[in-house]
Amino acid sequence: MCQFCHQHGEGKKWYLKAENYAEEFLSDMRRSKYIQHFFRDPQRLKDRIDLLDTLNRMPAFVQAVIKPAILGRMKKMHHGQVLPIEDVKEIFGFANSVVRLPCICRQASLGTEERFCYGLSMVPVEVSKLKEIVEAVGADYLTGPDVKGLEVVSKEEALEQFKELEKKSLFHSVWTFMTPFIGGICNCDDDCMAMKATVKKSLPVMFRAEYVAGVIPEMCNGCRNCLRACQFGAISFSLAQEKVSIDALRCYGCGVCRVHCKNDAITLTDRGMIPAAADIW
Ligand code: SF4
Ligand code: SF4
Known about the structure:
single chain, Alpha-Beta Plaits, 2 domains, seven-stranded mixed beta sheet, two-stranded antiparallel sheet
């Protein structure tokens, strides 16, 4: 179990606890202003990620002081965790409304509007403060190039969209806005700021999933479809054995590789059951 499961989930998966999505959190003015500020300026987000390159060039002792301070702040304000589709489905089971939103990361990294982020609400979105908060971000955010505004989607539609994104190798992650409030689920790849910070710039702003993937060797034909789909470089191929294997120390447990395996040769196991990976987040 990750740190948040202990702190905000009573020892169970914190993101499956409905109270962490409660509408009451949105009555906090500080939180609503934080959310608006977060979405208002993609360039600021990009600049902050670029600054990590400067930090990574500093002496190790400086990094050892600054990085824990930044991470401590991120855990309080905006932190994420990778999760597989079965847990997304469970979250949709207790959420009341789902809205599809433009991804601030893609706006920052590509300058385009990509609708890969989903806001969740425990009350109908029409009466939720989420609508008011997001609409107040500004005209540019919700009426970008494709002018879709705040798109309400059914939970079934959202789940199908998530599955389609997995086929394109995107993985899912939940995000807090002033922890423990969870505001939504994103679909991520290399264009995501969290991916850049966590994997490329050594600042882990999202926990790995509560799972680790493994291959059943007898069922693997060595096609390497899974290897091409893994965003984390956790899968390697053995020419001698004509099979792949998954490095538990690198695996984020997203489960995306499973979708790309026609032989059902990949399974997810509880991270706690894999001693080598149990304490790696
Ligand atoms: S090997 Fe791990 S990190 Fe890579 S796609 Fe599979 S579950 Fe995700
Ligand atoms: S996709 Fe499946 S069959 Fe193909 S290499 Fe990966 S585990 Fe083996």
